[in-house]
Amino acid sequence: MTGSRVDQRRVRGAKTRTDVLRAAADLASRRGIEALTLGALSEQLQMSKSGVVKHFGSRDRLQLATIDYASEVFAEVVLGPAADQAPGLERLRSITARWLDYLTGPTFSGGCFFYAAAAELDRQPGPLRDSIQATVQAGLALIRDDLSTAAGQGDLAAGTDIDQMVFELHSFLQEVSLMHLLLDDPMGRVRGQRAIEHLLERHGARPLS
Amino acid sequence: MTGSRVDQRRVRGAKTRTDVLRAAADLASRRGIEALTLGALSEQLQMSKSGVVKHFGSRDRLQLATIDYASEVFAEVVLGPAADQAPGLERLRSITARWLDYLTGPTFSGGCFFYAAAAELDRQPGPLRDSIQATVQAGLALIRDDLSTAAGQGDLAAGTDIDQMVFELHSFLQEVSLMHLLLDDPMGRVRGQRAIEHLLERHGARPLS
């Protein structure tokens, strides 16, 4: 074995936990959580299986850690830029704009990690389903919180059914993923943005200036 | 080998193509198209692999035939009952009511076959993705046709953006699947029905009497 090959192995061995998780989340966005095996991942990363095992111990723990990592990425790219916005409609509009960017952008090469994982795991009871369910519920709670704040501030019409609004707003986000990922239709983001803005204004939100 | 075991084998061998497809579609609704292997299916049906191969020739052809079969089931349970309805709002309301039943009912044990398959295959180019894409587009066309007919009959407001309505109506159907399958929330069907009816009435449809 030449010196350079030894160096290369050292470099390969030095891949951090985050490097592995990034590759795992990206792979899962394209092929599903089920495709996340130690073998597939070690091959993709050109590292040994034992190197992957060292970080995670087992396939189950790798899969769970990947869901957690994807949640952190979502928080960073979607919620991070809205951190300084006032709670209520201002922050909600900021979050949904970034959310639409995320759904149609390059964060994961297979599109929204959770869109894929939700449909994959919804009928497979266990810790993976529990984790995806909790993450999706947290996403819905983000929307609900800002809508409730807006209603409390008088920025939405009195008597607005907040849970129905959450249902409709989140449904538009799901449809954007379908148009973008399956239908190859570039109008998804525009239609989603339009649907969300109409929904808000229909319930009394002041139009965007 | 006893006589009764021979009979049992004959019975097993006599499973029809439709028996196999029904089991395949049900399995795929729970575990994904990727889980449709000749081995998994022969085990579930208690028939030999060669028995499955006899009907389909290869795994690829089995998977494609399963998508076609699921389309036929959808047409039967969702479109069949609306066949005699007048095109336009009357038929659309009939179709969407049956569609909501299908999404939340027992047709497939893993819920909507296409909700699962769309998210699974959307980033995996090939004949399976093409087939799912065409089927989803056909579903959207059903909605678009009746909305266009309704607009042409003056049953929707002049200038209605039909494509935007299709986007919104179909998004509500997707969200019902998410609530039903992942979130274990029994309100999905009610919220979906309400969202669809509000959408129609907002664009000028006469309310249901």
Summarize the structure.
By secondary structure, chain A is mainly alpha-helical. Chain A is built from ten helices and no strands.
Describe this protein's structure.
Two copies of one chain form a homodimer. Chain A is mainly α. Helix content of chain A is 72%, strand content 0%. Chain A has helices at residues 3-13, 17-31, 38-45, 49-56, 59-79, 89-104, 113-121, 127-152, 162-182, 188-202. In chain A, helix 2 crosses helix 5. Chain A starts with a helix and ends in a 7-residue tail after the last helix. The relative contact order of chain A is 0.10. The mean pLDDT of chain A is 92. Chains A and B meet through helix 2, helix 7, helix 8, helix 9 and helix 10 of A and helix 2, helix 7, helix 8, helix 9 and helix 10 of B.
In terms of topology, how is this protein built?
2 copies of one chain form a homodimer.
Chain A: H1 3-13, H2 17-31, H3 38-45, H4 49-56, H5 59-79, H6 89-104, H7 113-121, H8 127-152, H9 162-182, H10 188-202
Helix pairs in contact in A: 2-5, 2-7, 3-4, 5-6, 5-8, 6-9, 6-10, 7-8, 8-9, 9-10
